[in-house]
């Protein structure tokens, strides 16, 4: 299901953009410090990017103050063996620095908006939305310097990047629009009307029912949507232009309900603990009996009951994504948006899996789906024992020597060692050092940085090796 929601050509595009951006960083940031990750960029591929994304999803499950602590062997509190099993810390940091999903010369919001548009168009293509749709805004936490950063007091994040999202009533994401600053609009249309029509463009003239809160709703917008064969239900602000004064200024006692109609647009007012103003084009305002989750029955207007039942799609999305959020603190806002889009893709995949699985198991939770997806992305062999992951040398040796008798292994080892002897690495001409020092090949594979002045005389390319790693290299690599 994830391959359907996040297909191969998405990964191809990310690989292409990441390689282009990584090569650009290497060519424009010279001179570099010694051992800098920007000095040389080794181009990535689809398999490595999928492993990288799998680790990023896993970091949403494992809480850690610093990402490098998950890779280091010296920090006993946070070390996690699965990360070093998949890739080294330096390679992970280099991919994270060079991750990109747009053209190299893109500026401002163009660094991510084309990829968002492509992804949402694909979300719409693979799933036929039902009649009930909901529209609301969402806020991604970001406290860095950004021209279009928003402040919304009612949201948990309060500061961040604002998204306007269109979902089904049960939470599947259909369309996303990222707020990128003030735009110049036509004189005869308001900002909210333009926003709603933009998000609803693929679903107009099809008979959908749209549920929105009072930030978007107005009498003029409902008339326009009704002319496009789209019904609306939602709350309404009392100071919105075009509201009927006879309803807005009406004083009501608790439980009273009044309404007025113009053509097919109904505006109603009901007083519960406070006055509630509603607008609707698909339900006639009547009082109905509803029952809450505790079994208590109560009389409510029909438009209020339907609004409560179908408006929670975006709240459900935000709730599920917040449990295992992939984005981490960064000054590059577009990477945070990219990881947020990855979380949305995983949620959409889980939604489709639960909806279309023949034997729908209610115990199959979102966390189980994410764990199985991560194992598939990082290509984890489920037969590996957890203890073997901690002792990576032992695991690597056993995997290479699978089902080979000990006597035969010793004979092969002796045959291979013929002609292979350590020799000192001569220093470069003009150097003050007597010998040159290079990184040991075996220690590098284990995530250690050890420099040696010895190399193998008989192996091709004369690999630098520690004296203690000489036997391990010939037993494991040249089997």
- Main beta-sheet annotation: 9 strands, mixed
Number of helices: 18
Kindly state the percentage of residues in helix: 25-40%
* Mass-distribution shape: elongated
Determine the strand fraction and express it as a percent band.
15-25%
Distance between the termini: 39 Å
Taking all Cα atoms into account, the compactness measure Rg is 30 Å
Alpha-beta classification = alpha+beta
Given as residue ranges, the uncertain stretches (5+ residues, pLDDT < 50) are 393-409
Outline the structure in words:
The protein is an alpha+beta fold. It has 18 helices and 15 strands. The protein has helices spanning 2-5, 8-28, 46-58, 81-86, 89-98, 113-126, 191-200, 219-227, 245-248, 302-310, 313-323, 333-356, 366-377, 386-390, 392-400, 406-417, 441-445, 470-476, and strands at 132-141, 150-151, 159-168, 173-178, 209-212, 231-235, 257-262, 265-271, 275-280, 287-291, 297-301, 422-424, 438-439, 451-452, 454-456. Strands 1, 2, 3, 4, 5, 6, 7, 8 and 9 form a nine-stranded mixed β-sheet that branches. It has a two-stranded antiparallel sheet with strand order 10-11. Strands 12-15 form a two-stranded antiparallel sheet. Helix 3 packs antiparallel against helix 13. It is elongated.
């Amino acid at each position: 299901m994830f391959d359907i929601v996040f297909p191969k050509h998405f990964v191809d595009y990310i690989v292409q953009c990441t390689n282009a951006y990584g090569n650009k960083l290497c060519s424009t940031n010279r001179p570099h410090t010694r051992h800098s990750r920007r000095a040389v960029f080794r181009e990535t591929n689809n398999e490595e990017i999928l492993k990288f994304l799998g680790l990023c999803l896993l970091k949403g499950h494992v809480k850690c103050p610093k990402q490098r602590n998950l890779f280091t062997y010296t920090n006993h509190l946070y070390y996690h063996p699965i990360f070093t099993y998949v890739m080294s810390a330096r390679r992970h940091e280099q991919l994270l620095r060079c991750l990109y999903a747009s053209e190299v010369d893109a500026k401002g919001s163009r660094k991510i908006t084309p990829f968002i548009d492509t992804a949402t168009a694909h979300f719409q293509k693979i799933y036929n939305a039902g009649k009930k749709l909901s529209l609301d805004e969402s806020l991604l936490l970001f406290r860095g310097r950004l021209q279009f950063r928003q402040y919304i007091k009612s949201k948990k994040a309060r500061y961040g990047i604002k998204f306007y999202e269109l979902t089904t009533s049960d939470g599947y994401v259909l369309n996303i629009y990222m707020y990128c600053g003030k735009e110049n609009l036509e004189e005869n249309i308001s900002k909210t009307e333009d926003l709603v029509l933009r998000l609803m463009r693929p679903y107009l003239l099809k008979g959908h029912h749209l549920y929105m809160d009072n930030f978007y709703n107005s009498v003029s917008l409902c008339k326009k949507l009704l002319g496009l064969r789209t019904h609306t239900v939602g709350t309404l602000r009392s100071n919105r232009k075009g509201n009927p004064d006879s309803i807005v200024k009406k004083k009501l006692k608790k439980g009273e309900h009044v309404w007025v109609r113009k053509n097919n647009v109904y505006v109603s007012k009901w007083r519960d603990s406070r006055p509630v103003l509603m607008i609707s084009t698909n339900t006639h305002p009547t009082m109905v009996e509803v029952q809450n989750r505790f079994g208590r029955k109560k009389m409510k207007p029909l438009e209020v009951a339907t609004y409560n039942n179908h408006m929670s799609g975006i709240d459900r999305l935000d709730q599920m994504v917040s449990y295992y959020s992939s984005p981490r603190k960064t000054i590059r806002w577009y990477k945070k948006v990219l990881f947020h889009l990855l979380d949305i893709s995983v949620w959409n995949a889980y939604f489709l899996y639960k909806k279309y699985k023949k034997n729908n198991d209610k115990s199959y939770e979102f966390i189980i789906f994410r764990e199985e997806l991560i194992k598939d992305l990082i290509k984890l062999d489920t037969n590996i024992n957890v203890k073997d992951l901690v002792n990576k040398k032992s695991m690597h040796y056993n995997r290479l020597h699978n089902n080979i008798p000990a006597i035969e292994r010793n004979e092969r080892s002796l045959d291979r060692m013929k002609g292979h002897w350590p020799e000192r690495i001569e220093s470069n001409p003009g150097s003050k050092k007597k010998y040159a020092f290079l990184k040991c090949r075996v220690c590098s594979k284990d995530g250690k940085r050890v420099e040696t002045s010895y190399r193998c005389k008989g192996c091709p390319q004369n690999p630098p090796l520690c004296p203690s790693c000489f036997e391990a290299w010939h037993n494991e690599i040249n089997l």
